[in-house]
Amino acid sequence: MTSELDIFVGNTTLIDEDVYRLWLDGYSVNDAVALRVRSGILEQTGATAGVLQSDTMDHYRTFHMLERLLHAPPKLLHQLIFQIPPSRQALLIERYYTFDEAFVREVLGKKLSKGTKKDLDDISTKTGITLKSCRRQFDNFKRVFKVVEEMRGSLVDNIQQHFLLSDRLARDYAAIVFFANNRFETGKKKLQYLSFGDFAFCAELMIQNWTLGAVDSQMDDMDVDLDKEFLQDLKELKVLVADKDLLDLHKSLVCTVLRGKLSVFSEMETNFKNLSRGLVNVAAKLTHNKDVRDLFVDLVEKFVEPCRSDHWPLSDVRLFLTQYSVSVHSLDGFRHQVLWDRYMGTLRGCLLRLYHD
Amino acid sequence: MPGKLKVKIVAGRHLPVMDRASDLTDAFVEVKFGNTTFKTDVYLKSLNPQWNSEWFKFEVDDEDLQDEPLQITVLDHDTYSANDAIGKVYIDIDPLLYSEAATVISGWFPIYDTIHGIRGEINVVVKVDLFNDLNRFRQSSCGVKFFCTTSIPKCYRAVVIHGFVEELVVNEDPEYQWIDRIRTPRASNEARQRLISLMSGELQRKIGLKVLEMRGNAVVGYLQCFDLEGESGLVVRAIGTACTLDKLSSPAAFLPACNSPSKEMKESPLVHPPSHGCRSTHNSPIHTATGSRLTQNFSVSVPTLIYTGTGSGSAGKEGGPLKALLRQQTQSALEQREFPFLTLTAFPPGLLVHVGGVVSARSVKLLDRIHNPDEPETRDAWWAEIRQEIKSHAKALGCHAVVGYSESTSICEEVCILSASGTAAVLNPRFLQEGTVEGSLEQRIEENLPVGCGFCHIPYDELNMPFPAHLTYCYNCRKQKVPDVLFTTIDLPTDAVVVGKGCLIQARLCRLKKKAQAEANATAISNLLPFMEYEVHTQLMNKLKLKGMNALFGLRIQITVGENMLMGLASATGVYLAALPTPGGIQIAGKTPNDGSYEQHISHMQKKINDTIAKNKELYEINPPEVSEEIIGSPIPEPRQRSRLLRSQSESSDEVTELDLSHGKKDAFVLEIDDADAMEDVHSLLTDVPPPSGFYSCNTEIMPGINNWTSEIQMFTSVRVVRLSSLNLTNQALNKNFNGLCENLLKSLYFKLRSMTPCCLCHVNFTVSLPEDELIQVTVTAVAITFDKNQALQTTKAHAEKSLQRASADNEEMLQFPLELCSDSLPSHAFPAAKEHLESASSNSGTPAAQRATSVDYSSFADRCSSWIELIKLKAQTIRRGSIKTTVTVEKASPMGDGNFRNRSAPPCASSTVGVVKMTPLSFIPGAKITKYLGIINMFFIRETTSLREEGGVSGFLHAFIAEVFAMVRAHVAALGGNAVVSYIMKQCVFMENPSKNQAQCLINVSGDAVVFVRESDLEVMSAQQPAVNCQPSCTGEVTT
């Protein structure tokens, strides 16, 4: 006796959260059944393996049918075929778009193209996440990217409106879209110590301050692209390190204030010019796309690593960066105060976040 | 020109992409009714077109209004080639033809294509202006209300129950016409869908005419079925019960009489002012449907249960004349009708006097081509024959009527098995026609008090019994005779006294049959049928004993015919009726007593069976008389003593004394193991596993013994098809497979619904079909309802404890009662049981627990009445708020529409969701009041695919289709302004596959009643607040549940 057909359809669509997770994690029906058996569900419920198999198949079929709708979450709310309570709809959407930290670190800042998709095999092997799950996550990134790429208005709001995600998840996606659009390099060995959260934090600051949307919230509100004009202007900052007097003055201003306040004062004093050069040169290079991509590599190389090798405590980094940015206001010969604040304000936030082991 | 149909096409959404080049669609809509067609403009390049059409007006006869469906076709405009159809919507406008039902149909309908399924939605508004057609010769029956519900619908009162109505229409099946060879599958499917829609409209109209002829205004328990006879045609047939219903509209009508014992009559039909003067017994009762009748006179009203008591006097000798009188009256009311059948399964209090037992008839027919569709005489004659047989069976049981009546067919190639079954019963004639109530009769009746056991008392003559049965005096009233077991097709009467809980009992059986042609085949089947019936019956009886129960309700025996086998599946709900004797156990007897090891084996089996019975008794909380007997100090005489006591009534006491010894005789309770087969049978008895803890199941409306339902419900359909390994199939192997299939299916259901526990699967409806050789298809539809476990525990505890505690206390009370009730002391178990019933009544009506406790104290009549009053009061409230709520739900139904309004400018946003529509096979919604019936939903869909693999195989295909069917039912209900479907049933699910061609086809027919319900909690809120204010909370409440 073999089962040809076996279905269960409820007026309210049954969603089993555990099975949904297994499905999202990309397990085959058989693997999912095996995992469920291991969870001890048979003992708890007195069910047989056959019942479990049938139940799992059924849920998988339902999820498969729902997947089409999950690709455009507002459709899930308006469709008539599956009657699902709103709280469950929210859960379905949220879980579907949730991604694995390990996976996102692999693709963050990469172009969401077919080429990358081929790399998914390697990512799957490397991270231990099933290929199916990798595909889903990658496709989610790509889908969100495609929808909001050309859209005006706040990136987070757009994502939230079109994908009905929670605030937290929408912010994460904003970071992913922003990174993918600007192709920031995040995969270098040097950057391995950084978490997705670190990058997302930086992305949010950059979106808030460095994009077109940051200056003009009405027209041409584009959150995904960096403000080209701003990047061009950043060249003007070069004078801070190119002009020797200015650099010395800057150093003396910082040192006067920080003397006795830093545990690593002497190291700071000796390194000041290197650090300052590093930070200003990063700014000046941002006109080139390639250098934009290397932003994080540069920041880590030019600032984080030198400080870390001298064992600066985080509090000292904070004090230094604050003083370093503020002191510029007292440099009479320097005319680009606003530009400097826009650059340094964001950079300071990023650097503090990036500065850890 | 008595009607004007107006249709407006508003908008579409989520349309499929029809033009690959632009990824868009140029959609327009054709609106067709009868032979008239209108078209909207083409809305270019959009997947969300806004047509906002003018009102398309069709001027039509009301006959057409009833027969024809409104057909809406959405197409993609193509300049150079033919326009492509996107899909269709059929709208049955019947609900708009009753004055009280829906006034407008408006909402989003899924656009359905038989090949692609649902493809977007369309927003349509439909209205009907009816001009009154005065007293001319009428072909239409507009205004006759149809209900699938097999009881008097909740917000109506039955004035008269006229009786059985039936009709059938036949036609050629479009799929078998020559033209089908050249047309596309889509065209063929659509022709079929349209034809069936037309035929059911015609059928409904014809039935309506019959109802009008009988001077009724409604059909209750309407059951419409299709027989796909293949080559020989397509038969659509329907049966129902014609009634005159009164809308319960004025709550004030109930209030004046609350303090008189006649209050029970408020629900019961036919309270007449004597001034009406119509006491005739002819069969065309004169009635005027005035709503005020109730208020005019209550003097003739009688607590109907009393009637029950006296009627049962028929069993005893002293009841002779009364019985004769009763019989005479019933006869006059019913027998002049050709078929005194009712399709109802639940009755207004007092209607059902006695139940005789299940009557059924089957007949095997060879199908021939229907030559003249207008004269479907053969099919009519077939059914008439079967009904006649049923009628004579009922007569043999001393009954004049058949209730819980249903008909079904099973077709395989050219052989067709017609089946009919019902429950023989004696009915109170007063309900069946007007003005027959005789004062003197009632006075006699009133001398007895109602006890809720009357329906168990035998209607037939004891000395002239139609079949061997063991009779005993009723354990409840001690006055009349009852059988040892009772099988019925109806729901458990609400006043029945039950011990413990009920459970689903199934008998399953397969029989191999040689493949044969025509007559030979029919003969082979006819020869097998009696054996199958017998075995099914034996299995049911054994399983019932094994559960320690003594009655079956809702019995439904389905015999399915296939190419090479017959299948029998009987489902019923077993209960322990307090009025019936405790069932004896099951004894196993071996044929070869000499063999020692064999003996041992037998005794081992016997022990296992005894253990199972004991376990089941514990599980279903069946702990009746014995316990209380001991504690009270044996107020109930031992059976033998009792029989001696009662013998003075000139009964031969043989059966009574034999009752407890009955296993000594060779009867159903003794299983004789004489060969391997019998062994298998015993084994299979023991393989039925009880549901896991927290689950109960039944196939009736309500689960006996559970009454504290909470509001969560989940209706579902589950389908399984298994392929039998074709090699050397034996009956045993087949039985085992089939048993396994059903058991596994149930296990799967319990597992799936485990998050709802404690819950009960109600109205579990199994359907078996044999689509091909070696394929068995089982379809189950049921509803899971949660209940409050704590309360349940309390009840059961109370059940046990109170019977102990109060035993002594009650004893004192009982001293007063016995004199009034009967000379014998009442069995004390009747008290807690009655109490449960009371609680069920009061919890149904939402009375707070505290109040309940006070009314529960003793089961005197007065108290029963007081809880009844509560119920009535609440009902009255419901009615008062009916109109208010209706407007609310209309608003509620339109959030989709509103959503669209908003969406016209902006893309869809998160705020608008689809309104929830509940579906249930039951006639009620727990924790809610039905305030309005919007009309019958009767839909037929065909779905076909030529890309089976791509759609996820057979499971994926059918899963999607059933989900789509649910969606379309919900959309239609929502468009009518409703928020639920009650008495939902999937009457047909015919699935055919051809995997080698990557094809599959499925036909589904569903029906139900669209209703508006209001949560009881909302009702309370409403009474406290302004109605307008709380429209909002109730809406949100709906969405979150």
TrEMBL record, chain A:
GO BP term (any one): platelet aggregation
GO MF, any single term: fibroblast growth factor binding
Pfam families per record: FIBP
Gene Ontology CC entries for this record: nucleus
Name of this protein: Acidic fibroblast growth factor intracellular-binding protein isoform X2
Species of the source: Mesocricetus auratus (Golden hamster)
Lineage of origin: Eukaryota, Metazoa, Chordata, Craniata, Vertebrata
Gene symbol of the encoding locus: LOC101833884
Automatic annotation (TrEMBL), chain B:
Pfam families for this protein: C2 (PF00168), YbjQ_2 (PF23025), YbjQ_3 (PF23028), YbjQ_4 (PF23128)
Domain C2 stretches: 1-109
Highest taxon in the source lineage: Eukaryota
CDD domains, per database record: C2_KIAA0528-like
InterPro entries noted in UniProt: C2_C2CD5 (IPR037785), C2_dom (IPR000008), C2_domain_sf (IPR035892), C2CD5 (IPR038983), C2CD5_C (IPR057815), C2CD5_YbjQ-like_dom (IPR056430), C2CD5_YbjQ-rel_dom (IPR056431)
Disordered: region residues: 630-659
PANTHER family, per database record: C2 DOMAIN-CONTAINING PROTEIN 5
Identification of the protein by name: C2 domain-containing protein 5 isoform X13
Species of provenance: Mesocricetus auratus (Golden hamster)
